[in-house]
From TrEMBL:
Domain of life: Bacteria
Pfam families with a match to the protein in the record: VTC (PF09359)
Span of domain VTC: 12-229
InterPro entries the UniProt entry points to: VTC_domain, VTC_sf
Name the UniProt record assigns to this protein: Polyphosphate polymerase domain-containing protein
Organism: Metabacillus bambusae
Amino acid sequence: MPVQTSFNPKGRNELKHAISVAEYRVLRSKLLHFMRRDSNAGANGKYLIRSTYFDNFDNKILNEKKEGYLNRDKYRVRIYGKSDAVVNLERKSKRNNLTFKSKCEMTRAEFEKMRIGDILWMEKDERVLIRDLLFEIQNHQIKPKTVVDYEREAFMYPYGNVRVTFDLKVQSSLQNTDMFNKHLPMVDVLEPNLVILEVKYDEYLPDVIKYLLQLTDTRQEAYSKYQLGRMYG
């Protein structure tokens, strides 16, 4: 497998809010006039994301999120549309108020090895992120914990490298990690009248986007899809 790894060394700002479905529809209609859609979206402007998150028996990652640690890391394996055509290992890191993300390609077979605890092959892997994950597995006993599904609608704006996303229909597999099972049983974990709004940008958020995103009905707490996915266990 060719070694393909990406990393954002500068970090990005990230804002998250829960908004009502009505607010989502208003914002979406505004953004369509100023921002371009994600080219990966389907005909309806949305695409399905499925992620398997890692944690340990003590819920280290979940608790660090709940307690608001300024420096923390979260590992996940991500696919799109329940397909194994593209499988990425990702690490999302928080350092103070900035977000950093690293990712590398992997295979379905490699993930299945991780699921059953077959990790010796990771020791000499050329991908740095694979070896970093191995360190966490060995030192903190993290392993695949839960699968989270959601529909995403994304918009981009070039100035400030802005990305605005709306995440809908968030579902969890509880603690079943059979992520390539297209019929994996899932349960809803986001209130049906809510949508998660995420705004990511580099050094600044352009005024036009700030104006467009003025919200009247937001919940200010940061909504974590992994945290939602662990709501029932």
